[in-house]
């Protein structure tokens, strides 16, 4: 199961209710943090999540509100005897920014980490999932990310029961997509298993409306998308290269996603009803995220 | 009147209830922030204090928990059209750390600021107050600070009434400590006014017990002092060059301060009763600070 928690849903300025951006995706022992604004380590503490769980950090861009929580988080991970290697992904320039960040204070605990500068398409792949990115259109070099769970095979129990195939290595082979022989007869994995489609989560923050945002989120089960402004403030959104609720919904619509969660709201909005309404006119299955909101897929 | 608000009372790791360190002192249009841990700008937002009010930032040392809120705060001040110049004070190395900090992200708004590296004694003085510092003993270059309000003269109204001196420039002169002539007679400012002793607030964070801490806090009306550990954990305090509650109280005692507020508690303490009790055994007028606690002097 994929679990998502919103750790911060404001943009440049935090509010009483909303911290700077951060979204944690948990899946089969992987804990992927998308962006890490100031205060994210405290949000994790409040949510009861241990920073030492984090395996990957995916940075969309280097505006302060998306990154200023990194050094404190890494320091706290160091104090928790983090034994893994943290993999940090971000657009061109990330290595230099991280280097300067680590020279900006006296660190009391360090962790092993590796920085990967990413451009487009697959940036990580294992047996279970793929991470992809595509460049977006913002005031500085920015990428969006997709987490793509791979399809899995589930044994068609009634089928194998009928044939009398016992539990054990033969079923394991079928589950791995390999055909087997049983009582002199070839059994095809495609017949003996059912394909369970993997889920896809896309993360499109800080951008203007652009084809890559649509391409990245194509057929996603869940799109997390910025919607800094209401439709009435489209001029402001354009000036700062951000999205309105309506534009985020347009991306969701064009990308044929199943569900849309909006985030990264300007601090001027005491409530986000208008942004949600603007979005609903275009794409009905939409919610405005709040800090600590959880989604399961 | 001097007003103080604790914006963060944890140390290296924040807790659900306590943010990283920061104390704001407000006095006659001056807003002096002592230390600026991660999340301080959000704490200000929660407390209803505008970041653009800040006039001076006094950094004790460059461990992450005391400084990682600076870049975000300055960015937010920039977005608020900050028209003053922010004066940043800190120990040797502060210029270099600030320079690296500003190269660690893409800033969206900048403010005018000036960095002052401080060593000891008076670092700022105007008609109303003095700021002093002294080096302390910690794992990195560290200073403590004192805010010292200057003594003021208040008109002795019954005295001047008896002589018939009218409201106006003559009273102004007396209040400024200048003698005057009235009806051919010399009136001494010392007779016509009452001296109101200025208040002193000292800020002693991250240090081992040392003479300079006592010297800095000498006769302070209020000492804000770190007490990271209980007496039972003195070994840990020594290892990390911090104070126990008892040691903080010993400083308060030796310095003859009036009131002691403890802060900078290790995240291991769910409540700080034991630290307060350890301190009370040595110095009775002591309180453990909490986030958003206010003190008026």
Q: In total, how many beta strands of chain A?
A: 18
Overall shape of chain A: globular
Helix/sheet category of chain A: alpha/beta
CATH superfamily of the largest domain in chain A: Ribonuclease Z/Hydroxyacylglutathione hydrolase-like
Give the second-level CATH assignment, the architecture of the largest domain in chain A: 4-Layer Sandwich
> What's the total helix number of chain A?
11
Q: Approximately what portion of the residues of chain A adopt beta-strand conformation?
A: 25-35%
The percent range for helix content of chain A is 25-40%
| Biggest sheet record of chain A | 7 strands, mixed
Low-pLDDT stretches of chain A: none
For this entry, what is the oligomeric state of its chains? homodimer
If you had to describe this structure to a student in words, what would you say it looks like?
The structure is a homodimer of 297-residue chains. Chain A is 27% helix and 30% strand. The N and C termini of chain A lie close together (6 Å). In chain A, 47% of the residues are buried. Chain A is globular, with a radius of gyration of 21 Å. Chain A folds into 2 domains: 249 residues, Ribonuclease Z/Hydroxyacylglutathione hydrolase-like (Metallo-beta-lactamase, Chain A), CATH 3.60.15; 42 residues, no CATH class. In chain A, α10 runs parallel beside α11. The mean pLDDT of chain A is 96. By secondary structure, the first copy, chain A, is of the alpha/beta class. Chain A contains 11 helices and 18 strands. In chain A, the strands form 4 sheets. Chain A has a 7-stranded mixed sheet with strand order 6-5-4-3-2-1-18, covered by helices on one side. At the A-B interface, α1, α2, α3 and α4 of A face α1, α2, α3 and α4 of B.
